[in-house]
Amino acid sequence: MARAPIPRARVAALALMAALGLGAAACDAGGGKGEHGGKGDRGGKGKRGRGPGGEEDEGQAMQVKVVHLRPAPIERWYRSSGTLEARRSAELVAVQAAIIEKILVDEGDQVKEGQLLARLDGRALDLQADAAKIELQNLEAELERLESAGAVISQEEIDKQRYLVEEARASAKVSRHQAKQTVIRAPFDGTIVTRYVDEGNLATTATPLFHLADLEVLELPLHLPEKDAASVGVGADVEVELVDGTSFTAKIERRAPVVDPLTGTVKFTMRATEAPPAAVPGAFARARVLVDRRDATLSLPLTAVFEVEDVPHVFVVQDGKASRREVKLGLEGSERVEILAGLRPEDAVVEEGNAGITEGMPLRPVEAEAEAEVASAEAAPAATPVDAGS
Description:
Low-confidence stretches: 1-57, 377-390
Radius of gyration: 47 Å
Order of helices and strands: HEEEEEEEHHEEEEEHEEEEEEEEEEEH
Shape: elongated
Structural class: alpha+beta
Mean pLDDT: 80
Number of helices: 5
Oligomer: single chain
Number of strands: 23
CATH class of the largest domain: Mainly Beta
Helix content: 10-25%
């Protein structure tokens, strides 16, 4: 069956559409420039971009602060904490069990050595002492009678009586001493920290009556590692800070002659004779003692140093890129660390070595503010004195 002929108008329309389609395909095949005339991603050049001469765009480099090796003082302090202690303290107890008859001091009272603090009921002990005294007198009288009898009394009986007299004399001394123990006196100058009993209580040898402490002199034990103990001697200053922020200075009073094998530390005891009111026995305190010091040594900020497999390194800006350098460290302080080898004074070291920098990364160095101030101070010419007569 024969097809019907296509109208001429329709043939013309189809030809026009085919021509338009071929033109668009030709534009795409030519690599089509973008809206701004730049090449597309297929060319591999559109993301980073280069300058007119082909160099990397400076805006892509990471800006970093750099520092240089410079001489500065470094101090290393050992820090510890503990509770303050009184130089002398004692729990006062009764030597003889007796009823407390009178209490003469209370908590907070300052007392002197030998001052009477309390009196116990000692009537029973006084009676025992009187009885021992009378017995001694009777035995001495009997011995005198036997010695005056002459040959009638044997020497053996006289010696036996002498033994009884000496025994009674010793017993009388013990009784008199016990009778004197019914008073409680201060063994040293100090302050009554605690009163444990009241009048009428029974004082025993197992129950303390008072806690006496010398608050004029305070001590704090410090345990320093063995490697640091060698550089700290008796008389060294110790800075002590209390929880309220007040601080004072103490001195190392004594050093233990041995190293504790369990902790590997040496015990030092600091002592303070002048302290703020908040410094009392039992108060928490932080202490620091100077272990080592360098007056002026080539150093960097601690932030510039980082470790790679336990080896210290820094990043140096070299030819606009990050270059990792291994360094040898010396004394490490709280803010700076001594550099013994691995750098030159002119090297620009990245101040924040661990700020996500990698080897070969483009960097744009900017002098750190502190370093710039030091450099300007060193470069400033000395002021020329003006002659007053000119």
